[in-house]
Amino acid sequence: MRANNERWDLAGRDMEALLAEAAALQGESLWQDARRRLRRNRTAWWSLLFLLAFGLLSLCAPLLPIPSPVALDLQTEPMPPIAPWTEFGNHNYTREYWELSAIDSAAVDLRAAIFDDWQTGSWMGRDSKGRDILSRIVWGSRTSIIVALIATLCSLAIGVTYGAFSGLSGGRIDNLMMRIVDVLYSVPFIFVVIFLITIVNEYRTELEDNWGIGRETVFYLVIGAIYWLTMARVVRGQVLSLKNSEFIEAARVLGASTRRILFVHLVPNVLSIVIVYLTLTIPAVMLFEAFLSFLGLGIEPPKVSWGLLAVDGTEAINPLRIFWWLVVFPAAAMGSVLLALNILGDGLRDALDPKLRGKD
Amino acid sequence: MTRFLLRRFMWFAITLFTVVTISFFLMRSVRGGPFDTDRALNEAVRINIEARYHLDWPLWKQYAHYVGPFNLDRHGPEFLGGDGSDLFGGVLTGDFGPSFRYRDYTVNDIIAQSLPISALLGTVAMMWALALGITTGMLSALRRGSGLDISLRLAATGGIALPNFVIAGFLVILFVFLVPLFPVAGWGSLRHMLLPGFALGAPFAAYISRLTRTGMLETLSQDHIRTAWAKGLTPRLVIMRHALKGGILPVVSYLGPATAGILTGSLVIEKIFYIPGTGSHFVNSALNRDYTLSMGVTILFTVLVYSLNLVVDLAYTLLDPRIKLEDE
Q1: A190, A311, A343 ranked by CB distance to B157: nearest
Q2: Strand pairing partners for B290?
Q3: Considering only residues 183 to 202 of chain B, which have any Cβ-Cβ distance to chain A shorter than 8 Å?
Q4: What is the pTM of this model?
Q5: Which of A118, A142, A226, A336 could make an S-S bridge to A189, C-beta 3.0–4.6 Å?
Q6: Superfamily for the B108-327 domain
Q7: d(Cα B289, Cα B293) in Å, to the nearest integer?
Q8: DSSP state of A27
C-alpha cells in the first residue's frame, strides 16, 4: 500500500514535469510545416515566386508603357523582333483597346499621364496585322488567368459542395451521388460542351441583353461544370475519412463546439487537398481555353487570350517564311506559366501530404 | 462479375438516355436551324425541307422517331426516293439518321468513312504514348535523381504544360519546313501518320511517363522486389517481370481517361493536319449546326469511351489480384 502511494507521488511529480514540458513545446501547425517543406523544395518555391511576379505583371498591364494590344498597322507583314538595345522605345503609342472596365480605363489614363505617347519597342515582334506581340502576351495573360481562376472557382464550388454533402450524408445517398460521378467520368464531356456552346451562341444577344450574361460567363460556367468531378471525389473521400477519425472524436470529447470542429479541424484538413487540386486544375482549364479558342469557340477577338495567340501563331505557319516569333513567344509564356503551376501543384501535394509530415 | 457487368450496363443505358434526350430537345428547341440562310427560303421549299427532315412533326414524335427502334415515317421509301433499304431505324438500331448539311449523306455514311481514319490516328498516338511514356518513366525511376531523370521529368512536365496544337506547330516547323522529312498534311501513307500521331500522343506520353515513374518507384521499394533480388534474379528479370507489372498499374487505369483525351485532342490535330477524320467532321458539324451529325458523333464517342473504360476496369482486376470488382 505504502509502496503504491510512493509510486503515485512519483507519477504525480512526473506528470507535472511532463505537463510543464508540454506547455513549453510549441506545436507546429499543418501550414507552418507545409510552408517550411515547400520552401525546401526549391523548384516549387521558385515557381511560386515566378507565378506571383507574373500575376503582378498581368495585373499592372494597363499601367505598363507597352503598345496597345489591338492597334493595327496594316502596312506591315509580321515584323521580326527588335532587340531592346537596338530600339528601346518610341513615341507611337495610340490609346486603342476593347471595352475596358472603369478601373482598367482609369489605369490606362494614368499610364498616358505618366508616359505620354512613349511605348516600348517591338521586342517580341509584331503579328501579321502589325499588333505588338509583347503587349498581346501581357494583355492575353489577364484573360487567360481570369478564365482559369473563375472557372476553377466554379468547379471548386460545385465539387466541394457535392463532395462534402455526399461524404457527410453517407449511406445510400452517398452511394448514388458517387455512382453519378463515376458515370459522368466516362462521358466525353468536350463533345457535349462544344454542342452546348454552339447552342448558347444562338441565344447570345438575348442572354446579354436580358440577363447580362456574356459568352465568357457561359464559358466559365461550362468549364467549371466539367472540372468538378475530381474535386467532388477527393473532398468526399477526405470528409469520409475525417468524419470518423480519432482526433475529431477527441475534440468532441474535450467539449469542442460543432462550429469549432468544423472550422478548426475539418476545414483546414479538407482545404489542403483542395488547394492542391486547385493548382492542378488551373493549368488544365487554361489548356481547355486554348483548345476551345483554337476551335473558334472560346474568347473572341478583339479580346486576346493566350489560346488565341497560340492559334494565331499556329495559323501563321507556312512553308515560305517562318515567323518563329509568333509561335515561340506565346508558347514560351504559356508553357512557363503552366509548367510553374504544375510544379507548384506537385510541390504543394508533397508539402501538404500528412504522411510525409515532419520528414524531408 | 455478371452482376458487375449488368450494373455497369444499366448505368450506361441511363447515361446514354440522358445525353440523347437532353441534346435532342436542346437541339430541336434552339432557334435557327441548319437550313437558315441569309435569304428567306421559298415557302414551298421550306415546307418540303421540313417535311423531308420531319421538322413539321410534334416534338415528341420527332423524338420517338429519332430514338427508334421503329420508323414513324408514313411516307415510306418512295418519298425518300430509295428502295426501302435506307429506311431510318433510329438511334437504338445504330442509325443516326440523315445529315442536315451534307445532303444525300447519312450520318452513318460520314462516320463509316471517317472513323477508320480517326481510329488509326488514335491507335498510332496511343502506341507512341505508351512506348515513349513507359520507357522514359522506367528509365527515370531506375536512375532516380540523375541528370537523365531530371531532364526527362522536365520534358514530361513541359509536354503536359503545352497545348497539343503548339507542339504540332513546333513539329511542323522542325520536321516539315526546316528538315523536310514529312509531308505537311493529308492522309494516306505511314509518313502522313507519324507527325500527327506524335503530336496527339505527346501530352499522354508525358503523363504516362510520370505515372510509370511513380508506380515503379513505389514497387521497387516493396518486399517482393527485395525477395526477387535476394533470390539472385538478373536485373532484367526483376525489372521487367516483377517491378514493371506493379509499376504500370496506374498507367492501366489511366488508359480510360487517356482514350477520351486522345479523342478530344484529335479534334485539333485533325484540323491542323487536314485529316478527314471524325473529329474534324464533328467540329464542322457543330459550327454548321448540323445537329444530327454532331449528336451522332457525341453518342458514338460516349459509347466508345464507356466501353473502353469498362475494358480497362476488367483488365485492371486481371493485372492486380488485390483489386476486386465492386459488387455492391
Answers
A1: A343
A2: none
A3: 184
A4: 0.79
A5: A226
A6: MetI-like (1.10.3720.10)
A7: 9
A8: P
